[in-house]
Amino acid sequence: MTKLLDDLAGHYSSIINGLGEDTDREGLQDTPMRAAKAMQFLTQGYQQSLSDLVNNAVFESAMDEMVVVQDIELYSMCEHHMLPFIGKCHIAYLPQGRVLGLSKFARIVDMYARRLQIQENLTRQIAEAIEEVTNAKGVAVVIEAQHMCMMMRGVEKQNSRMKTSMMLGQFRKSQATRTEFLNLIGNNR
Ligand SMILES: Nc1nc2c(ncn2[C@@H]2O[C@H](COP(=O)(O)OP(=O)(O)OP(=O)(O)O)[C@@H](O)[C@H]2O)c(=O)[nH]1
Ligand SMILES: [Zn+2]
């Protein structure tokens, strides 16, 4: 058991006691350590690096048309309340000589999602990472998500969704390229 995990579990004990609960009662005895492990999992993106994660899975290819990977599910934690936000990420890029291994898109999404985030920065970081590893002519990322801090508390709105987009290179320059991407993912959702 690492010191970090022990420390986190100690903090969770304080929180639980601070809420007026009893960490010695049966149902809560193992909760501080469980919660610590869960939080460590949900923030494991801090321990990862782009190059380790991509693991050289970038392949030569003459493909130079748009590639879209859509509906990648996403679980992140808002940095303001440390409550989850949950949604989908859609990614497109225009390769120029190199394509990225398909699973790596999801791994890149998870690496940045498993940190304390705001949706706007998450969107930008994913786009910039894909640009960096592929050297693509353009990268587009759209995220649509629901924020528990808006639903379970605060303004308590259950049906609002936040959509963010980041367009780099050709997607930023060309309206036609952007429109093609938005049509492919179904921009009426
Ligand atoms: N732009 C953006 N805002 C976010 C995100 N996640 C949470 N927020 C917002 O961060 C803001 C924090 O506002 P504060 O007034 O400091 O905190 P608060 O009193 O808890 O705000 P309420 O949620 O309005 O009750 C809120 O408006 C949240 O909705 C995000 O990913 N992007
Ligand atoms: Zn929040």
TrEMBL record:
It catalyses: GTP + H2O = 7,8-dihydroneopterin 3'-triphosphate + formate + H(+). One of its GO terms (molecular function) is GTP binding. Pathway: Cofactor biosynthesis; 7,8-dihydroneopterin triphosphate biosynthesis; 7,8-dihydroneopterin triphosphate from GTP: step 1/1. Keywords: GTP-binding, Hydrolase, Metal-binding, Nucleotide-binding, One-carbon metabolism, Zinc. GO terms for biological process: one-carbon metabolic process; tetrahydrobiopterin biosynthetic process; tetrahydrofolate biosynthetic process. Pfam families: GTP_cyclohydroI. Signal peptide: none annotated. The keyword Disulfide bond does not apply. It comes from the Bacteria. Zn(2+) binds at residues 78, 81, 149. Its EC number is 3.5.4.16. Belongs to the GTP cyclohydrolase I family. PANTHER family: GTP CYCLOHYDROLASE 1 (PTHR11109:SF7), GTP CYCLOHYDROLASE I (PTHR11109). This is GTP cyclohydrolase 1. The lineage of its organism: Bacteria, Pseudomonadati, Pseudomonadota, Gammaproteobacteria, Pseudomonadales. The gene is folE.
